[in-house]
Structure formats: C-alpha cells, structure tokens
Amino acid sequence: MTDSPSLEKGAVITDGPYSPTSSTLEGSFDAAAERRLIRKLDLRILPVLWVLYLVNFIDRANIGNAKIQGMEKELHLIGQRFNISVWVFNLGYLVAGVPLMVVFRKYGPKSLCIMMFFWGITVIGCGLVKRWEQLVICRLLEGMCEAAYISGAAYLIGAYYKKTEYLTRFVFFCTAGIIAGAINGFISSLIAKMDGTAGYGAWRWIFIIEGIITICVSIISVPLIMPWPENCTFLAPEEKAFMLARVKAEGGHIAEDEITLKEALNVLKDWKIWAGVAMNMGVTENANSLANFQPTILKGLGYTSTEAQVHTIPVYLTGAAFSVIFAYMSEYLQRRYAFYILGWAVLAAGLVVEIVYPPKASVRYMGMFFIACGCYLAMPISIIWVSINAGKGYKRAIAIGAIINFGTAGAFVSSNVFLFKEAPKFHTGFSTGLGLACMGATAATITYLGCMYENKKRDQRRAQLPAVLDETIADLGDAHPDFRFAL
Fold first, then answer.
1. Residue 456: how many CB atoms within 10 A of its CB?
2. Which of 3, 302, 319, 466 sits 20 to 30 Å CA-CA off 283?
3. Could you give the CA distance from residue 105 to residue 168 in angstroms, rounded to a whole number?
4. Which domains does the chain show, CATH number per domain?
5. Are 77 and 127 in contact (CB under 8 A)?
6. pTM passes above 0.90
C-alpha cells in the first residue's frame, strides 16, 4: 500500500471494510433542496458571467467585422498584415494566460472586472490608430488583458457546481461567445451607417463604441460578480452551509489552497493537461477561423459587406443551439469522449465541404453551419473534461488556464493559413483546419484510453484499502484514492 497517493501525502486512513461503491468524494444530499439551491446559483452566477463573455467575444472578434468596413484600405493592410494583427492577439493570450490565472485565483473573481476595464481601453485604442503597427500593439495588449477571462469564469463556475452539473453550465456560458458572433455582425451593420461621423470611418466606430461599452460593463459588474463560495452572501446561512458541503464533496474549489512556483510547474507535468491542449487546439483553430474570417469568406460567396455581416447570424445561432442540446445529452449520459468525437465529426464534414468547394454558394454556406456546430460542441467539452480530471484548487485553475491559453495557439495557425491570395477558396486554411481537428480527435482518444486504464489501476489499489478514509485527505483532488477520471 505504500504506492497509494494518499499515503504519499501523509493521509490518515481508518480501518473498516471496503465497499467498491463507497466514496468520500461524493455526498448524499436532499434532492429537492439541491434543486432549489441550484436554481438560485444558476440565476446568480451565470447571467453576469454570460454578459461579460458576450462583451469579451465581441471585442475579440470585431476585427473581422472592421476589416470589411474600410480598415483594410485605410491602414493599408497588404499581404499578411491583417493576419499578423489577428494572431498577435493570441500571442498576448499565450504569454499572459497562466500567470493571470494565478493572479485571479489569489485575488478573487472581481479581478476579472479590472482586467476587463483595461482591455476595453485597448479596444478603443484599436479605433484610434493611425498605422497598422499601432493596431498590432493594441491587439497584443488586448490579448494579454483578456487572457484570464474565459479560464477564470470556467474556474468560478466549477467552484460552485458538482462535476455532473459543470458541463451544461459552462456550455450555457459559452453560448454568449456564439451569440456574440451573431450580434457582432448585426451591430457592425448598424455602426456602418456612422461612416464619416466626426471624420471617422465606420470601422473606427466599431472599435470605439464597443470599447466604451466594455468599460461601462466592467464597472457595473464589480458588485454583481460572485466571490468565492466561502464568501458568498446571497444565500441564507443554512443554504450556504449546504452549498459549501457540496463544494467540499465534489466542487473544484479549495478555500485555503496555496501554491508555489515549483508546484505550479509540477502541475504542468500532467500528460492529461497537454492532451487537453491538443484537443482544444484542434477545434479552437477552426472556431477562430470562423470568428475572424467568416465575414470575408461570406463576402467571397457574392454577398455585399452588409449582407455578409447579416449572414453570419444564423450560423452562430445554429451552433449555439446544437452545442446546448448535445452538451445536455453528454452530461445526462456522463459521456464526454463520445460527444467530443460527435463534434469533431460534424466539424470535419463542414471542412470537407469547404475544401471540395462545390459550385453552389448555398452548399458552401451550409458548410459554415457544420463548422460552427462541431466547434462549439467539442470546444467546451475539451475544457471541462480535462479540468474535472485535474481535481481541485490551484491545479484545476492552472489546468484550465493551460488548456484554454495554450490551446489558442491554434489561432496562430488559422491567422497565417487563410491566405488572401487563395480567396475565396482558402484551400490551405480549411485543409489545415481539418488536419488540426484530426489531431484533436486523436488526443481525445488517447485521453479516453489513458483515463480508462488509470481507473482500472486505481480500482485495484483501492480494493486493498479500508472502506472509510479519514476526512483529512478530502482535498487531495485527483490524488484521492476514491477519485476516478471522467470518461
């Protein structure tokens, strides 16, 4: 028994008969009271984060809308200059993501509002630049300021919910990003009417107005965003005690968790995190392509700039509906791998349509729907699947940060393979997307088989231990003898 993870950490184990179904990680709670509590949590936690992500995604993707409203001509974005302006955002994301997640975990959820305030300033800056080099700098700073938002929100949601409730809440949160894509096209088509106002082109007003909205929302959200579970005040004392019992049993948050730089680096040695990065990268590359290049692709189908903006809306709405429906099925059936592969298959079908480039524009437009549906189902599954397998506290926070921020490295690829000399076919861009999607499916398969193997080994070790384990080991996370990896 000396190889038990609990013994390695000095845990105390009490004697008693072992039952294969026993687990100190799971609690037995009153179902009716639990439903009432979950409804309160849903209404208090998710709407604020949803609105903030809506604004976040609009700010991130508006460069694609600005491009076709005059930015390309005014800033002289010849060659790959626009692509550089796109991928440098992800460079900031990559550099600042994990460090800012540690800051977020240390100083609490309200730090997200501060980050949002600063990225709002950078968005306004994008609308005031005079040269394309200045645009690149603003986009880099914007990426750095935004780097911890999605990761932080994902961690905050997981802090309040059990593993079996986490995916659907996060997918609902992610629909804000999908809806933002649709709203972005609509808003941009309206702002386009301001062309020439105060001597500014329409593309400048897209950045300026949306940046001002971001700053206002960041200030308003400070008192609304939820603190850590142990500090929440909107629940009655007995409800709060109940909520904290759920968090202790199956939540992803540890109140007094601390971590050193050495321990943080050690967390990143977990192979499952890097498999999650590959899974996320495989679909994020295609999602970024959709966000940044869809208006250009649709314009290549023969639509005007305004028509292209409007035609992005049904693509995003369909993707949102598809992701929510199948995420609920995934959570109900407790199957992550199967539904990630479903998302991959739908995504791959859409990419094949675009690669083949059928003569009918309507068929190519249909391919955009497939790409959106596949991306927006597989992407949240890749994040939540690996994060719940990472246990609790700082380890989960670092795992989420790594998956999302290193996973966005796929955007480096997407922003450099959609070559405008290949417009409107973009054969290299779509072919590369298909290759990365297949890489993600391979990583998901490795994760599934690896976790299945590890669970069998843990079952064998657990059978040698007493049935009742001391509560002092409750916060060991994925090192707990009763912890089993989700499949």
1. 10
2. 302
3. 23
4. 48-222+261-463+473-479 (1.20.1250.20)
5. no
6. no
Task: For residue 173, give Cα distances in angstroms to 150, 159, 165, 180, 224.
Answer: 9, 15, 13, 12, 16
- The pair of three-digit structure tokens given for residue 84, joined into one six-digit string: 């550089």
Are the C-beta atoms of residues 312 and 183 closer than 8 Å to each other?
A: no
At 130 the pLDDT is 93
What is the C-alpha separation between 82 and 99, in angstroms, rounded?
28
Residues sharing a CB contact under 8 Å with residue 109, sequence separation 6 or more, in sequence order: 152, 156, 225, 226, 227, 228
Query: Are 417 and 117 spatial neighbours (Cβ–Cβ below 8 Å)?
Result: no
User: Alpha-carbon distance 343 to 364, whole Å?
Assistant: 19
Cβ 357 vs Cβ 297: under 8 Å: no
Residue type, 3: D
Specify the pLDDT at position 211.
95
Contacts 24+ apart (CB under 8 A), 367-372: 368/290, 368/294, 368/297, 368/298, 368/315, 369/314, 369/315, 369/318, 369/319, 370/346, 371/286, 371/289, 371/290, 371/347, 372/178, 372/290, 372/315, 372/316, 372/318, 372/319, 372/322
Whether 184 contacts 61, CB under 8 Å? yes
* Residues with pLDDT less than 50, the chain: 1-27
Q: Per-residue pLDDT tens for 94-134?
A: 889 888 988 898 899 999 999 999 999 999 999 999 999 99
What single-letter amino acid sits at 411?
Answer: A
Helices (runs of H) and strands (runs of E) counted in the chain? 18, 0
Contact between residue 443 and residue 353 where contact means Cβ atoms under 8 Å apart: no
429 Cβ contact list (under 8 Å, min separation 6): 289, 293, 414, 417, 418, 419, 422
Residue showing tokens 């802090």: 159
* Residue carrying structure tokens 């049993």: 249
Please state, in angstroms and rounded to a whole number, the distance separating the CA atoms of residues 204 and 179. 22
Residue 189's φ and ψ, nearest 5 degrees, are -70, -30
Task: Give the model confidence (pLDDT) of 316-351 as tens digits.
Answer: 889 999 999 999 999 999 899 999 999 999 999 999
Per-residue pLDDT at 191: 86
Distance CA(4)–CA(26), nearest Å, equals 20
Per-residue confidence (pLDDT) for residue 28, from 0 to 100: 56
- Preceding peptide of 466 cis, ω within 30°: no
